[in-house]
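Dear U.,

For the methods section draft, I wanted the exact inputs and outputs in one place so we can describe them consistently. I've listed the two proteins in the order they'll appear in the manuscript figures. Please don't edit the C-alpha cell lines directly; just add comments below if something needs changing.

First protein:
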Amino acid sequence: MIETVLVAVDDSPLAESAVAYAAEVFADADLEAVHVADVEYDMNYDMEEVERASLDGLEGAGDELAQSVFATVREVLADRDVDASATLLVGDPGDRLVEYAAERNVDQIVMGTHARAGLSRHLIGSVAEQVARRTDAPTTLVK
C-alpha cells in the first residue's frame, strides 16, 4: 500500500501536472510536495529567506519563488481531499531528492520531466533521470 508520495515541484507546468497526477492516482496517500532551491545554479532565490524557511503544511515558504511554487501546489489540490505537506530543501535537486526520499522512506516519487532530447539533455542533465536511476523508491515521471 502506498502511504507516502514525494512530489517534486518547481515553477513549471509539468510540476503542476505531477501534483495533479499524484493527487488522482494516490488519493489515499500523504503527499509531500518537495521543492529544492538550487542556489548555485539559480540566482532567483533570496538566500536569507531560503535559509530561514520552515514550512508547516503548505503555508508560507522561504522566498517569493518558493512561495509561488507552493501556492501553485495549493491551487492544484484545492478541490481535492488530499493530505499534503511541503518541504523546501537547498542544494543539488537530484542529490537532495534522492536523499530526502531515502530519509523519509517514501513509497513513491512523482515528478515532471521536461523530456529534453539530444545534446541539451546531456549538457544540462535531467533531474528526473538522476532521481529515477538513483532512488530505491518506485518513480513515476509525468510528461
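Second protein (the one for the lower panel):
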Amino acid sequence: MSQLTNPSLRRAFFLVLKVIISVGLLYFIFTLIDVRAAFKAAVGANLALLALAVVVRGSVFALDALRLHSMAPTDGLPYHQHLRLALRGAFFSQMGFGFLTGDAYRAMGYAKGEASLSKSAAHLLAARLAGIAMTALIALIAALYLMTSDDTALSGFARQVGFGVVALGGFTLVALWVLFTVVPRFASPAMAERLTLGANALRTLNTRIWMISLLVILLRGISLWLIFLALHQSFSYFIALLASVTGTLITLLPLAFGGLGLREGAVAGVAALFGMPAALSVSAAILLRLAVVTAASMGLIISLFMPELAPRDEPEP
C-alpha cells in the first residue's frame, strides 16, 4: 500500500476502482430487468426523436459556453473560443473522466490566453456551483410537490430527495462560509489570493447566469423527455425533468467512472417509480447516456475545426 503514495499510482488505483464500481452497478441494474426486452425497446426507438435529443443535449454545451462568456473569465475572449473549450471539456467530462477534468482542461485553455489559471478555475467552479444549486432547487421544488401525493412510494421518494437536497445545501453553505471566512485568516498569501479570486467569481453570478443555468437544466429534461417519446412512452415532461435532476445530483458522488451506473440507476429508478416498465426505464437511461456521448463526440469534432486561442503577447516594459 505504500506504493499508493505515488500520485500517478494513486490516480490509476482510484480510476480502476471507479471502473470496477461502474461495471458492478451496471451489472446489478441489468440483473433486475429483461435484457432482451430492454435491447428490443432501444432498437425500436424513433430515430428522429433520438437525433433531436442529441441536438438538444448539444445545445447544453453551447449554453455552458455562453455562461462563461457572460462571466468573462478571460477579458475580451470571443464567444467561439468559449464554445471551443466548452465542447472539448464536455468530451472529457462525458467520456468518463468527470466534470472536474473537463473544467481543468478549460481552465488551462483560458490560461493560455490570460496567463491566470487561478482566475479561470475560479470562474469555472462558480459557474458549476450555480448549475448545481439550480439543479438542487428544482429537485427540492419537485420533492415538495410530490410529498402531497397519495402514493406512498412517491411521497417516500420525495422525502428522501428533499432531505438529501437540504443536507447537501446546508453542507455546501457551511463549507463556503468556512472557505471564505475562516480559512483566509490562516492561509498563505498565495492561497488567500486564490480565495479572493473565488469570492470575486461568485459575485459575478448575476440574474443572467442563473437564468442560463435554469435553461440548461430544462434542456436536459427535454432531452430525456424526447427519449421517453422515442420509446413510445407518453410520460409528462415533469417526470423526465425529475429523473434528469435526480441523475445529475447522484453523479456528484465521485464513486463511479464518469457517473456511469449512478446516472443510469437514478434515471431508470425514477422512471420506474412513475410506472414505466423496468426494461424500458433502463433503455431510456442507456439511450440518454448514448445521446450525451454522441453530442460530446460531435462537439469535439466541431471544435477541431475552430481556431485555437493564440497566447497573448507579453506587455512591453
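Candidate sentences for the figure legend, describing the second protein: Residues 19-304 form one domain. The chain has a mean pLDDT of 82.

Thanks,
Y.
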